[in-house]
Every structure is written in structure tokens, then in C-alpha cells.
Amino acid sequence: MTHPTTNLLGIDWGTSNRRAYLLDRDGKIVRQHNDDAGILHVEGDFEGSLKSLLLALGVEHADVVMSGMVGSRNGWRQVPYLSVDQPLSHLHQALMEVETAIPNVRCRIVPGYEFIDAQGLPDVMRGEETQVLGALELSASGGWFLLPGTHSKWVRVENGKIIELVTYMTGELFSLMSRHGTLAKVMSGEQSVPEALAAGVRAARYGGFTHMAFCCRALVVTDRMPAEHTASYLSGLLIGSELHEILKKTQGDLSSPVQIIGSPALSSRYLSALELLGVEARAWQPDSVYLAALRALFNLKR
């Protein structure tokens, strides 16, 4: 029997960071907590880290649902991926129980999804499925969802099911190239320069990424572009390469607005790039989306 003071706790537990949302039994947010206790920073002591979080939140009885990389092979417990024939609305039925020694606490992890493309190549996600579920709960239409980040995810949804999943290492490549190698040596700061971002997005259509990335360096060393524009231009090249490939894949027909779920800074960059390419898009507020997903995962009445 559920204790009358049991709180509902949702945790978006990623690689570097952790976001926690404490809800009451009606699904209303009581408190939010963000920290840097991602899976790489807890040294394998997930139970101890959760205990510390519960203490910080002042919670003794809790029903905990966790999503993200906490369910990966490097996380607390590896949770098998669901196949895409399982609708997003069934995620609450597929939560994996995690046994702990913490009294009065129930823990479960959201599984990710695996997609196999026409060439037999796999693609996977953990955490983004929860955000897509939340957007659908908030009445997002079907079609393409874009979840930018270290690994940018494009998810096509029809009738509540994932039809296609495509991942691009856009954020990771930007981080590597802006800190190491020849481009990093000519880069002066990472301040946002909108016109340089737009120039990079446009240039991405003219050739393969590795060639255009070298041209980015050449523009600086030949004094055709200021060094302080390099970071934004590179970001535009990477985002543009991603978008041009998606447009090629869909033959330019994305049918409905692209639903973007990401940080305000990243969402803004993608919104600008999509507008430049004539693609309609809408940005969703990540916290609102996650809270809607938690209400569905805890199977609360709307």
C-alpha cells in the first residue's frame, strides 16, 4: 500500500548533469533540483547519490522514475531498449524496477528505444523518448521531433509510434573541433554571431563537411572572416549539414512543423537555421515537457 506521504520524484539523469522534479500526488510540481551528479560523476555509487538527493529534497517516502543515461550500460542498471513497434504511451508499463536498500523508496527506470534502418544499421536513444512523450501529452502533433544536444536526435512519430530515428553527433563534434585541432587554433571566443551562423548554414550545402570545415579555417587565415566569427560559422556548418541531410532524406517535405525540444540557446540556433531554410518549426519548453511526461509515466489522471 502506498504511504500517504509518498512523493513522486522524476529524475532526468544524464551523462554530466541531473535534473530532479518532485511532484505531489496530483502531479503538481513541489520542488525542482539541478546538479552536476551525472553518471560520470557519481563513481558508480548511484544508490548513495540518490540517497543524498532525497535528503536534499527532504523526502522520506518516494516513488522514483528515472530516465536518460542512468539506464545505459554505464549507468545504474542497463535497461533493454524497446523496439519502435511499442507506442510511447506504453512506456509507463515498461519501466524497469531497480532494487535498493533505501527504505520506503521505489525506483524504476524508463527504457530507451532502438531503431533499425533500411540498411540494417541501428540507432538508439535514452532520455529523448521521455521528452517526446511529454510533448505529445501537451498536444504536439505528429511528424518530426528535433532534440538537439551532444547527440542531436531526429524522431519521426506517427499515431503515437516512433517511425524513424536519426542521430547526428553535432554537439560532440563542435566541442571536439572547437577545443582541439587546427580550427581551435584560429578560433577566438565562442560568442554567438548570428550572421556567421547563417553563413555556415548556407555554406553547408556546397560540399562535404570535412572540406567545408577546412574552408572555415581558410576564411580566417586569408582574412576573409574575423576569428571571432569562427565558432558560430562552425556551428552553422554542423547544424546546416544535419539539416540538409534531413531535407534530402525527406525530399524537402517535413509535412508539419518540426517540434524542437532543447535548451533555449540550442533551440534558438536551430530555429534560426530552419527559418533560413524555409522550414516551419516550434520550440517546446523542456521543463514543461518533462513534467507532462512524468504525469504519464506515473499514470496520473489528466
Question: Could you list some keywords that capture this structure?
Answer:
302 residues; alpha/beta; Nucleotidyltransferase, domain 5; globular; 5-stranded mixed sheet
Fold and architecture overview:
With 302 residues, the chain is an alpha/beta fold. It has 2 domains: 1-116, Nucleotidyltransferase, domain 5; 127-293, 2-keto-3-deoxy-galactonokinase, C-terminal domain (Nucleotidyltransferase, domain 5, 2-Layer Sandwich), CATH 3.30.420. It has 9 helices and 14 strands. The chain has helices spanning 46-57, 128-137, 170-177, 182-186, 194-203, 209-221, 230-249, 264-276, 286-297, and strands at residues 7-13, 18-23, 29-35, 62-67, 82-83, 96-98, 105-109, 113-116, 122-125, 143-147, 152-158, 161-168, 258-261, 281-284. It has a 6-stranded mixed β-sheet, covered by helices on one side. The longest helix is centred in the C-terminal third of the chain and has 20 residues, at 230-249. The radius of gyration is 21 Å and the shape is globular. The mean pLDDT is 92.
Average predicted confidence as pLDDT: 92
CATH arch. level architecture of the largest domain: 2-Layer Sandwich
Spatial strand sequence of the major β-sheet: 3-2-1-4-7-6
CATH superfamily of the largest domain: 2-keto-3-deoxy-galactonokinase, C-terminal domain
